[in-house]
Amino acid sequence: MGIGQKRYSQPNVSLPNVPKPVITPKSTWDSSDGKATLIMEKKTEPNSSVYSFSTTDNLIYSTTVPVSNIFSIPYNSWSPDNKYFFLKETADGNNNYYVFSSQNKMFAGNSKFLKVNEEFAKKLINYQLADVTGWAAPNLLLVNTNELNGKQGPSFWFEISSQNFIKLSTRFN
Amino acid sequence: MAKKSAYNSGILSFAFKSLFIVLIMFVFSVMGSKLIKTLNPVCANSISCINNLNPDIENNSPGLFENQTITPPKIELSASDFTKPVLGTETASREKHIYVDLSTQTLSAYEGQALFMQTLVSTGKWYPTPTGDFRIWVKLRATRMTGGTGADYYDLPNVPFVMFFAGGDISQGRGFSLHGAYWHNNFGHPMSHGCVNMRIIDAEKLYNWVNPATAGYTTHSTTSDPGTLITIYGEAPL
């Protein structure tokens, strides 16, 4: 060992066994016309998961959640015009739905995404959100509900631009 | 008193007779309506039907669906659209067969025992998709579909990869088809007026696989190249 070089000895402590993060292979989902692709990457840390969502052009959103929270890309995620997509998060037995702009545009209130459940809870107090199934039109998400007593409720459109719910005369099962 | 009683009897008798006549008229009206529907069944797309079997590309026309203005996809026809090799070789042991399960809103396409593709679709919501065995009789690269009335009226240019089918009680004139859908993305749930809606990439893949082999922007089945068999079954969750 040369002059001036320090010798570092192994510390006499047991080092924690830090597991390597598990990187789940990417999940990808194409739009109906095949012109856009949504890519989900998941990195599992010991106590949390890091989810990232990108299109082929941009990173859209990244979030760290408890390990028990699971994000998924629904089959009908992409809006028909590829301008939006919606995601589903399952947390504590509940499903939460979020709408994003594929072009990284912000929504009203300078928000990166729309929280469908939050808007629902504010505006449809007489119903429970049962499911978001897909897009009835480029600007309209289809939301199915239950009555507060658990019986099947009506379907609504969730209009992205106004963030209002429009009750439909027909249930879309 | 007797006169009043006779008068009341007369009124009652008239009321019962009127009610009877109204009831008879109602019954005949319902039966007549059913007869008209049997003799003149509704076309899947009630306005456009199968009125134009030439490829209809309109790249600058807006569409309308559910009172929403829709921008149809632009279609640029190319030589490769005119003639595409049909994927897979059909033999007696590898007959192509499409199954549409209305209950699960799923389309499965087989070549013999081999699954070629399986995907979610949207079948009839406003009018039922017929069940039974059918064959594709003509394919159109794209066409305009219009129908419905009032709030249900729709006008959709550039509907892509259209495969009209017929068979049994369902004549060609009924205009039922498998096709791509660009106006909604709610597959797995009934959404249509009787046709089988598909994601555009799925419709394209199926269109290039089914018989008759593509030979133009409009391709008719022939005795030497009959259309692929389609079996539709189950009950849609309406």
Brief summary:
The complex is a heterodimer of chains A (173) and B (238). Chain A contains one helix and twelve strands; from the N terminus they run E-E-E-E-E-E-E-E-H-E-E-E-E.
Measured by DSSP, the beta-strand proportion of chain A falls in: over 45%
Number of strand elements of chain A: 12
Number of helix segments of chain A? 1
- Global outline of chain A: globular
The parts of chain A where pLDDT drops under 50 for at least 5 residues are 1-15
Name the quaternary structure.
Answer: heterodimer
> How large is the share of residues in beta strands of chain B?
25-35%
Q: Which key terms come to mind for this protein?
A:
heterodimer; A: 173 residues; 1 helix; globular; B: 238 residues; alpha+beta; 9-stranded mixed β-sheet; 22% helix
Can you describe this structure?
- The complex is a heterodimer of chains A (about 170) and B (about 240).
- By secondary structure, chain A is mostly beta strands.
- Chain A has one helix spanning about 115-125; strands at about 20-30, 35-45, 50-55, 60-65, 70, 85-90, 95-100, 115, 125-135, 140-145, 150-160, 165.
- In chain A, the strands form 3 sheets. Chain A has a 4-stranded antiparallel sheet, with no helix packed on it.
- The longest helix of chain A has 8 residues, at about 115-125.
- The N and C termini of chain A lie far apart (about 75 Å).
- Chain B has about 240 residues and is α+β, with helices and mostly antiparallel strands.
- Chain B contains 3 helices and 11 strands.
- Chain B has helices at about 1-40, 80, 200-210; strands spanning about 65, 70, 95-100, 105-110, 115-120, 130-145, 155-165, 175-180, 195-200, 220, 230-235.
- In chain B, strands 3, 4, 5, 6, 7, 8, 9, 10 and 11 form a 9-stranded mixed sheet that branches.
- Chain B is elongated, with a radius of gyration of 24 Å.
- The N and C termini of chain B lie far apart (about 60 Å).
- The relative contact order of chain B is 0.20.
- The interface of A and B includes residues 33 and 136 of A.
